[in-house]
Amino acid sequence: MGPLVPNEVIGANWNFLIAFVIGIGFGFVLEQAGFSSSRKLAGMFYGYDTVVLKVFFTGAITAMLGLLFFSLFGWINLNLVYVNPTYLWSAIIGGVIMGVGFIAGGFCPGTSICAAAIGKIDAMIFIGGIFLGVFIFGEGFPLWEKLYYAMDLGAPKLNQVLGISGGFFAFLVIIAAAIMFWVGEWAEKKFPREEY
Amino acid sequence: MRARNITVGIMLLLGLVIAMVPENTTKPYKLTADQLLRAVNTGTHMIHPDYLAEWLINKDPSIQLVDVRSPDDFEKYHLPNAINIPLADILNPDYQVIWDQGVKFNVLYSNGSTDSNEAWMILRQLGYQNLGVLMGGLNYWTEVIMNPEEPPVTSPNDEIAKYEFRKGASQALGGGAATTKTATTDTEIKKPKIVPRKAKKAPQGGC
Fold this sequence. Notes:
Number of strands of chain B: 5
Strand content of chain B: 5-15%
CATH architecture of the largest domain in chain B: 3-Layer(aba) Sandwich
Helix content of chain A: 55-70%
Radius of gyration of chain A: 19 Å
CATH superfamily of the largest domain in chain B: Rhodanese-like domain
Helix content of chain B: 40-55%
Largest interface: A-B, 24 and 19 residues
Oligomer: heterodimer
Number of helices of chain B: 9
Strand content of chain A: under 5%
């Protein structure tokens, strides 16, 4: 049956409406988890608050299990689900830039929009920074075009690279998440902060 | 605290389940049996050799001929510009780009029409469109286009015109077995005149 749009169960125009609803849901969850506070996000780095890790990993695991079970029941064809192509150097360099921005600014792109929506001025400035970065990237694209497309790996899935089944890999991810949650809570006790 | 532990427990349990079950690698059929039966009954996927000959002579770029016979047979003889995808290989991921597109119309053919029809049914059920089958396969093609039989002189004009077209098509497409006594007169004509098929007249008179 699924995915709905590629299988023409619903029209492609529905994409926008669905994205709109999901976007609102995503923003709601971010705000509800307290991610509109840059201190909370920076806490992930310093170890006094690991709720970011927990929320995102829980979300990822839920989606992962959902997709695998849907595939098992024949409700979705995972081969038709779009997977972002991996350009290794882009991923590494982009990851580093994003990580630095994350710690320095205290937001990731999504949470900055969320925080700006509730009127946080630092978030608005952060968004300004995002647009500045987008502008520089776009205007200077010819300069780093080669680097951007370097080491095109296609769209591999981790379990395929490791040569194990998707289900088993999912199980390993869940175990890893449980361990990370446990370590995170240990860190919260180890590096507590009274108020943030 | 308790709720969280329960959640983690459930996640681990579900993960264990999904790790145990075999991966679902089946390609789900997108057409129900009803839909496919309807498609089979209407028979609109059947391409008559006359139509195909017309397309080939006009070098219609939207037509892709797919030979589902073995590579050996393909080597011996195949229709102009056909590609070879043996029946056993139609699900090979390499060929997916050929099926999964909305630009070209794939005409499948084999010697008869059994193999090509089987390929058509599988591909159609997988949801691929733009698929047709050469009616009667190469056998019928040879009979109708490559070696057309001259109709008796008393035949209706339609029949004669059809024969003339087939004779021309045979020459243009390298058949060359059109009856020789008339072929001599128009050997220089490479491209046969296409006789537009008239729309069937509604039955007149009678009840």
